[in-house]
Amino acid sequence: MRVLVLQGPNLKALGKREPAIYGALTLHAIEQQLETEAQGLGIILTHLQSNHEGELIDALHRLDSDFDGCILNAGAFTHTSIALRDAIASQGAPVIEVHLSNIFARESFRRRSLIAPVCRGSISGLGALSYSLALTALARIPRDPEAASVA
Ligand code: DQA
Hints:
Blueprint: E1 2-7, H1 19-22, H2 27-41, E2 44-49, H3 53-61, H4 63-66, E3 69-73, H5 82-89, E4 95-99, E5 121-124, H6 128-140, H7 145-149
Parallel strand pairs: 1-2, 1-3, 3-4, 4-5
The site of 1,3,4-trihydroxy-5-OXO-cyclohexanecarboxylic acid has 10 residues, from loops.
């Protein structure tokens, strides 16, 4: 199984960026942790971070041809980008939306996700654990009839 781990704007600065909100782990540390977990699950990860909406869209367009699923932290584009939403909707592979912070407990402009309705599921507010849980979900979705049947 191949999974794309796609990170949106400003996530490269994790560790230095508002650590009280996003935690002290760097993006590299989160990726390393995920790699260890993916190996145990027999999953091959590809990591991509971009501050550019078009680059994220191009990556999403390659989902069905190159990957079996995607873990997506779209950063602030979560709240603004219809284009990102349309790119997710154009693919059949499951996309799990993740956020380090609890977007529903923050400013009102963060409480709305434009991408949530076209993602298979959303995990928010658990720090790096949000990514680990998304990986577990992607590993199980193809084989789990319960997960497959929930609308
Ligand atoms: C974020 C939440 C977004 O609102 C914010 O713009 C980010 C990070 C998170 O992981 O908590 O860049 O996606």
